[in-house]
C-alpha cells in the first residue's frame, strides 16, 4: 500500500512532494491506523439502506439538535435504516453546511463529537468530505488573507485576464472573486460555487497534507462511508474544462488507498452531478478509485417515466448499466438536499424532452436553477422540488400522491446498488415555499427543518399524509432488507412489457428470485409476466393466474417459489 501511495504522489506531484512531505503523510497514516480498532463491514448487502439527513433536522427547546436526532432515530428509524448520511455538520457560513469553516469540529449549534459517537452506537455513519472548497470565513482562509507563512499557496490565484472560457461552470456565477490581502494587494481567487466557497489548491502539497488529515479524522470518528463532495472539480488547469481531469482521478485514488490502509472496509463514494458516462469514470478500474458513484440519472429518469407514463427511456438506460467489478456498485437515490439534476439526463434524453419535463414540473410549482454555457446561452441544470410534489399534480388526492410515491421508491429499492432515502421523502414532505421566501434560494424548498414534537404528532396521526408516507415507505424498506435477491450484486434484468409496464428480475447467488412489476400509468394493465405460482410479497398471496392485473400506479414484488 505504501508503494501504491508513493506512486500516486509521484504521478500527481512529481518532485514537488518532498521527502519531508512524504514522511509527514506516512507518519499520520501509521498513527491513525494504530488508533482505529473497530472493524468495518466488508462490502455491502441487501440490508444496507441509507437515510440522508441534516444534523440539525429536528429541534427541541431544551436540547441540541444532534441529541434530538439521536432520540428520533432510535424511535422512528433504527429498525428501518442501516446507515445515516449526516450532511455537513461542521461549523459553516453558507450553503447549508457545504461552506465549511472548520473541518475538525462539530457545529456547536448542533452538538459535539460525543453526539456523533452516540449515534454511531445505533447505526453506521456516512460523512461528507467537502474536499473541493472551504468557507471564506475559515481560519485557513483568514491565514491566507493575513499572509501567514505556510498558507500563501492554499488557494488558487488567477490573473483575471486569463482565458477561462473552457471551464465547466456548474452555476451561473462568476468563476473568480477578488479578495484583499493584509498588504492591500488584491488577488482574484478561484470560486467554483460561490464567493464564500473558495477552492483549495491541491497543487500545493501542504493542502493535500491538511486534507488527508481531515480524511483521517473522519475515519477516526467512525465514518463507514465517505462522500467526496463536488469532487470532479478538484484539480484546475487553465485552458481545460477543469472537470474530470486526470489528476483529480489520481487524488481520489490516493484518498482510496489511504482509507484502505487505515480503515479497510471504508466505502469511498464520489458525488459528480454530471452526464452518466463521466460519472461512472470515477469507479476507475473497479478496485482503485470509488467504491460507489451516485446514480444521478435515476431521479430524473424516474420522474420522466412517471410524468410521461412511459418507462422506455428508463429501461433502455438501465439495460446499459455495467460495473467494472463486483467491488463497485451504485449509490441510488431519488431525492437529496439538492434538487433533481438535469445534466445526468443529457446524452440519455433529447434536449427537447428535458425542456418538456422542466416545463411540466414548473407548471406544478417546481422551481428551476440555471447554468451558463460557454457559448453565452443558459440551460436548466436543476429542478428544486420535493420528490413527493415532483411526482404529483397540485390537485391530486393523497391516495394518488402515495401511489406514485410508493411506485417510485419501489423502483429505487429494486435497482441494483445501495439505496438512499432523503429525510424529506420518508417524512412525506411537500414543497416548502415559506422556506424559499425566508432563506432566499430555491433549494430551501426541500430542506425544511422540524420541531420534533410537532412532527411526531403528525406521524402519530394515522390519516395524515406524513404518517401514511412514513409507514408505507418504512414497510417497503424493511421488506426489501429481508431478501437476498435485492443484494446490490444480485443479477439484474429489466424490460418493458409495454411502454407503461416495467418488469425487473433480481436473482441472488443463493437462487432466490424476485420479479418486480411496475404499472407506470393511470390505467389498469393486464400482463403476462410468467410469475404464476410465485408469492406476492406485498399482498401476501400466491399468484394463481397466468395474467397479472395491475391497478394504476401499482407495484408488486413476486418471489419465485
Detailed description of the structure:
By secondary structure, the protein is an alpha/beta fold. Helix content is 33%, strand content 20%. The protein contains 17 helices and 25 strands. An eight-stranded parallel barrel has the order 1-3-4-9-10-11-12-16. The chain has a six-stranded antiparallel sheet with strand order 18-19-20-25-22-23. A three-stranded antiparallel sheet has the order 13-15-14, covered by helices on one side. Strand 9 (223-228), helix 7 and strand 10 form a beta-alpha-beta unit. Helix 13 packs parallel to helix 17 (465-480). The radius of gyration is 24 Å and the shape is globular. 48% of the residues are buried. The model has no long low-confidence stretch (mean pLDDT 96).
**N- to C-terminal separation?**
47 Å
Q: Would you count the extended β strands for me?
A: 25
Mind summarizing the main beta sheet?
8 strands, parallel, barrel
Strand order of the largest sheet: 1-3-4-9-10-11-12-16
Keywords:
single chain, 561 residues, alpha/beta, 8-stranded parallel beta barrel, 6-stranded antiparallel beta sheet
What's the structural blueprint in terms of helices and strands?
Layout: H1 2-13, H2 19-35, E1 50-53, E2 58-59, H3 65-77, E3 83-86, H4 113-120, E4 124-129, E5 133-135, H5 139-145, E6 176-180, E7 186-190, E8 197-199, H6 205-220, E9 223-228, H7 246-262, E10 267-270, H8 276-279, E11 292-294, H9 298-308, H10 312-319, E12 329-333, E13 340-341, H11 351-363, E14 367-372, E15 378-384, H12 387-391, H13 398-414, E16 418-422, H14 423-426, H15 433-439, E17 450-451, H16 452-460, H17 465-480, E18 491-498, E19 501-507, E20 513-519, E21 525-528, E22 535-536, E23 541-542, E24 547-550, E25 555-559
Parallel strand pairs: 1-3, 1-16, 2-17, 3-4, 4-9, 9-10, 10-11, 11-12, 12-16
Antiparallel strand pairs: 5-8, 6-7, 13-15, 14-15, 18-19, 19-20, 20-25, 21-24, 22-23, 22-25
Helix pairs in contact: 1-7, 2-6, 6-7, 9-13, 13-17
Amino acid at each position: 500500500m505504501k508503494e501504491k501511495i508513493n506512486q500516486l504522489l509521484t504521478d500527481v506531484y512529481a518532485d514537488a512532494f518532498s521527502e519531508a512531505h512524504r514522511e509527514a503523510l506516512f507518519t499520520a497514516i501509521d498513527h491513525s491506523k494504530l488508533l482505529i480498532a473497530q472493524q468495518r463491514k466488508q462490502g455491502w448487502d441487501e440490508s444496507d439502506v441509507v437515510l440522508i439527513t441534516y444534523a440539525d433536522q429536528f429541534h427541541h427547546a431544551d436540547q441540541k439538535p444532534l441529541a434530538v436526532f439521536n432520540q428520533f432515530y432510535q424511535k422512528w428509524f433504527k429498525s428501518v435504516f442501516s446507515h445515516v448520511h449526516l450532511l455537513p455538520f461542521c461549523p459553516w457560513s453558507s450553503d447549508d453546511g457545504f461552506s465549511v469553516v472548520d473541518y475538525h469540529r462539530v457545529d456547536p449549534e448542533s452538538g459535539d463529537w460525543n453526539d456523533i459517537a452516540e449515534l454511531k452506537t445505533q447505526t453506521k455513519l456516512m460523512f461528507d468530505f467537502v474536499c473541493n472548497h472551504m468557507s471564506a470565513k475559515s481560519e485557513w482562509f483568514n491565514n491566507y488573507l493575513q499572509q501567514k507563512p505556510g498558507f500563501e499557496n492554499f488557494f488558487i490565484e488567477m490573473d483575471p485576464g486569463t482565458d477561462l472560457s473552457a471551464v465547466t461552470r456548474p452555476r451561473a456565477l462568476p468563476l473568480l472573486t477578488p479578495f484583499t490581502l493584509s498588504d492591500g494587494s488584491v488577488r482574484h481567487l478561484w470560486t467554483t460555487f460561490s464567493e464564500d466557497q473558495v477552492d483549495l489548491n491541491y497543487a500545493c502539497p501542504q493542502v493535500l497534507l491538511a486534507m488527508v488529515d481531515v480524511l483521517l479524522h473522519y475515519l477516526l470518528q467512525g465514518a463507514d462511508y465517505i462522500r467526496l463532495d463536488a469532487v470532479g472539480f478538484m484539480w484546475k488547469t487553465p485552458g481545460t474544462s477543469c472537470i474530470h481531469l486526470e489528476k483529480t482521478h489520481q487524488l481520489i485514488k490516493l484518498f482510496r488507498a489511504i482509507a484502505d490502509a487505515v480503515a479497510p472496509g471504508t466505502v469511498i463514494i464520489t458525488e459528480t452531478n454530471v452526464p452518466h458516462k463521466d460519472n461512472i469514470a470515477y469507479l476507475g478500474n473497479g478496485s482503485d478509485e470509488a467504491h460507489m458513484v451516485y446514480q444521478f440519472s435515476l431521479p430524473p429518469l424516474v420522474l420522466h417515466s412517471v410524468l410521461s407514463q412511459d418507462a422506455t427511456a428508463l429501461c433502455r438506460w438501465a439495460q446499459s448499466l455495467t460495473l467494472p467489478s463486483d467491488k463497485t456498485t451504485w449509490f441510488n437515490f431519488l431525492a437529496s438536499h439538492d434538487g433533481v439534476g438535469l445534466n445526468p439526463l443529457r446524452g440519455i434524453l433529447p434536449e427537447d424532452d428535458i425542456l418538456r419535463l422542466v416545463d411540466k414540473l414548473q407548471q406544478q410549482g417546481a422551481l428551476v436553477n440555471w447554468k451558463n454555457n460557454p457559448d453565452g446561452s443558459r440551460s436548466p441544470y436543476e429542478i428544486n422540488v420535493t420528490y413527493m410534489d415532483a411526482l404529483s399534480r397540485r390537485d391530486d388526492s393523497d391516495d394518488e400522491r402515495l401511489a406514485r410515491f410508493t411506485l417510485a421508491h419501489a423502483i429505487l429499492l429494486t435497482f441494483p446498488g445501495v439505496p438512499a432515502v432523503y429525510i424529506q421523502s420518508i417524512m412525506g414532505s411537500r414543497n416548502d415555499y415559506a422556506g424559499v421566501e425566508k432563506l432566499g434560494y430555491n433549494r430551501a424548498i426541500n430542506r425544511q427543518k422540524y420541531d420534533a414534537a410537532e412532527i411526531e404528532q403528525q406521524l402519530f396521526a394515522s390519516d395524515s399524509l406524513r404518517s401514511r408516507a412514513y409507514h408505507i415507505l418504512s414497510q417497503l424498506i424493511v421488506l426489501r432488507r429481508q431478501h437476498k435477491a435485492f443484494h446490490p450484486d444480485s443479477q439484474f434484468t429489466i424490460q418493458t412489457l409495454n411502454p407503461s409496464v416495467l418488469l425487473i428480475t433480481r436473482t441472488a447467488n443463493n437462487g432466490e428470485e424476485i420479479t418486480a412489476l411496475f404499472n407506470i400509468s393511470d390505467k389498469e394493465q393486464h400482463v403476462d409476466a410468467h410469475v404464476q405460482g410465485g408469492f406476492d410479497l406485498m399482498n401476501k398471496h400466491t399468484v394463481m393466474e397466468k395474467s397479472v392485473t395491475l391497478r394504476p400506479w401499482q407495484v408488486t414484488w413476486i418471489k419465485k417459489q
